[in-house]
């Protein structure tokens, strides 16, 4: 599901060059601040590279790492720590209005454009993925 959503987002950004996304990586509280900040940024950059690989322009994407700041839930259990290891994506439309990924998906389906003359994204699985 995540893979499909990111493919969809890359296609949306390619089709809507005035939109921007902010990708923010997060971690749990295990480990030191510098380590968690590097890990959080690395998580965000993986998503950034994926979006660019599938059609988004580098100028549309900003990536940053929050580290262990701003947890989604407390870090008291293994499950909660797992939830805090995440990447959040926020979009900005042409007017500068912030939109959640869910808002962008709703916009895309409300304003569908035909696929005629648009490049299609093709995914092939390497042997290491099977």
Find the count of extended strands (DSSP E, 2+ residues).
4
What structural category do the secondary elements indicate? alpha+beta
The proportion of residues in beta strands is 15-25%
SSE pattern: HEHEHEEH
Give a brief outline of the structure.
This protein is an alpha+beta fold. The chain contains 4 helices and 4 strands. It has a single domain, classed as OmpA-like domain (60s Ribosomal Protein L30, Chain: A).
Write the layout of secondary structure elements.
Elements: H1 2-15, E1 20-26, H2 33-53, E2 61-67, H3 78-84, E3 87-92, E4 98-100, H4 101-110
Parallel strand pairs: 1-2
Antiparallel strand pairs: 1-3, 3-4
Helix pairs in contact: 1-2
Structure, described:
The protein is α+β, with helices and mostly antiparallel strands and 130 residues long. The protein contains four helices and four strands. The protein has a single domain (2-129), classed as 60s Ribosomal Protein L30, Chain: A. The chain has helices at residues 2-15, 33-53, 78-84, 101-110, and strands spanning 20-26, 61-67, 87-92, 98-100. Helix 1 packs across helix 2. The longest helix is centred in the first third of the chain and has 21 residues, at 33-53. Residues 113-130 have low confidence and may be disordered.
